[in-house]
């Protein structure tokens, strides 16, 4: 059985991004930048007032001084005058600083009488002025390639003058459930029918992470049905099958894929849940075969499928699991040859530094209700010794 870290590295080794497309700024949130974003203009483009007040020369802005008001300037309407000694210009927040002025006296410190302004407090040079380019200059790199765009990034790109962004294309990921016992939710259920929870759960995870998912028709436990559905891989950026990859007489996923040309890289991982995981290449399409139990399918999707998706999207991905420290909330027994991913709840620790992770006593890979109640996976290395409550551990937070 292959080590988890080695399996992740093998999956990620040769994955390439899915190409680029140009999208409007209003549809770019959540996408991954394929090209850096440079400022088309400085921000602010000119020096502007940060407050409502009066623009003047700092040398004139003395307590008790009386200045002659020579113009009034709202935002978006620059003044044509040049401020001379003993003069000021009434202006409002966002208005361009007129030529000759180098300070702003806020209106709270001015008593206006007709076209004269009497200063109740002095003002220093540069006060309440947002200097041209204070935020960024023209041609500055605002956003690097490979960044997943959030709302603040969208705002920054807009401030830089962009209405279109070049992003990585969303990977088209096919989700294929297999098995004679699998039925769609809502369909009439035979006594031994199992509703197809795993496909919907995995698809939801991958959609959340940025994929365009395609739910393929359920493949039945015969070669004709399986090979028919696997031929759909030619139109996909990645194919994820669920079930049928173990060692039973009706686990036909691997033989069916081999029949149509799968170049299998590996099969079986030293992890629990998720031992019968398969990876290979079908033409240009990477194929990940997940276990059929829904919890195992979800855990393997977090550990293997999500990083593969991120690589296809152009995000930087490491081969090591991204974990964080926690404290065990209960005793755990010694581990065997497989790396464990234990479903656990999280709670604040008395010290407040790291959370307390308490694994459930039952870890059956078909129990979705326990998965729903979990907030994290506690990771235990192969052959890890027994540990007592209060000892340190590593976790992955569940999405």
Give a short summary of the structure.
This protein is an alpha/beta fold and 399 residues long. It has helices at residues 4-12, 151-159, 197-208, 223-230, 253-259, 294-313, 368-373; strands at 20-24, 37-38, 48-49, 53-56, 66-73, 87-91, 103-106, 110-113, 116-119, 129-130, 141-143, 164-168, 172-177, 182-183, 194-195, 212-215, 238-242, 263-267, 271-272, 278-282, 285-290, 324-328, 339-347, 356-359, 376-380, 392-397.
Oligomeric nature of the chains: single chain
Tally the helices.
Answer: 7
Largest sheet: 6 strands, mixed
Distance between the termini: 27 Å
Helix/strand class: alpha/beta
Q: Radius of gyration over alpha carbons?
A: 31 Å
Estimated helix fraction: 10-25%
């Amino acid at each position: 059985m292959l080590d988890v870290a080695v399996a992740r590295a093998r999956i990620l080794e040769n994955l390439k991004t899915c190409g680029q497309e140009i999208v409007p700024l209003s549809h770019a949130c959540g996408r991954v930048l394929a090209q850096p974003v440079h400022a088309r203009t400085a921000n602010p483009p000119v020096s502007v007032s940060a407050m409502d007040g009066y623009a003047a020369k700092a040398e004139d802005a003395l307590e008790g001084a009386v200045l002659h008001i020579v113009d009034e300037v709202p935002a978006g309407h620059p003044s044509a005058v040049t401020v001379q000694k003993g003069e000021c210009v009434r202006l409002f927040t966002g208005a361009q600083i007129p030529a000759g002025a180098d300070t702003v006296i806020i209106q709270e410190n001015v008593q206006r009488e007709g076209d004269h302004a009497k200063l109740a407090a002095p003002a220093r040079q540069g006060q309440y002025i947002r200097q041209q380019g204070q935020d960024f200059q023209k041609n500055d790199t605002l956003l690097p390639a490979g960044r997943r765009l959030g709302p603040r990034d969208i705002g920054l790109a807009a401030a830089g003058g962009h209405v279109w962004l070049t992003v990585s294309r969303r990977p088209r990921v096919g989700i294929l459930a297999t098995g004679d016992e699998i039925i769609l939710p809502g369909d009439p259920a035979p006594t031994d029918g199992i509703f197809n929870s795993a496909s919907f759960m995995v698809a939801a995870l991958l959609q959340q992470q940025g994929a365009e998912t395609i739910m393929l028709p359920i493949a039945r436990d015969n070669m004709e049905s399986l090979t028919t559905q696997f031929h759909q891989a030619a139109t996909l950026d990645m194919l994820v099958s669920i079930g049928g990859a173990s060692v039973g007489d009706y686990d036909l996923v691997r033989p069916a894929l081999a029949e149509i040309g799968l170049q299998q890289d590996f099969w079986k991982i030293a992890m629990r849940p998720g031992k019968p995981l398969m990876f290979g290449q079908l033409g240009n399409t990477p194929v990940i075969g997940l276990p059929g139990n829904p919890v195992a399918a979800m855990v393997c999707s977090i550990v293997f499928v999500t990083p593969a998706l991120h690589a296809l999207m152009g995000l930087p991905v490491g081969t090591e699991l991204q974990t964080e420290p926690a404290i065990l909330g209960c005793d755990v027994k010694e581990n065997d040859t497989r790396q464990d991913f234990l479903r656990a709840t999280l709670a604040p620790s008395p010290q407040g530094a790291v959370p307390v992770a308490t694994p459930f006593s039952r870890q059956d890979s078909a129990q979705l209700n326990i998965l729903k109640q979990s907030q994290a996976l506690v990771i235990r290395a192969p052959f890890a010794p027994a540990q007592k409550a209060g000892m340190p551990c590593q976790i992955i937070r569940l999405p």
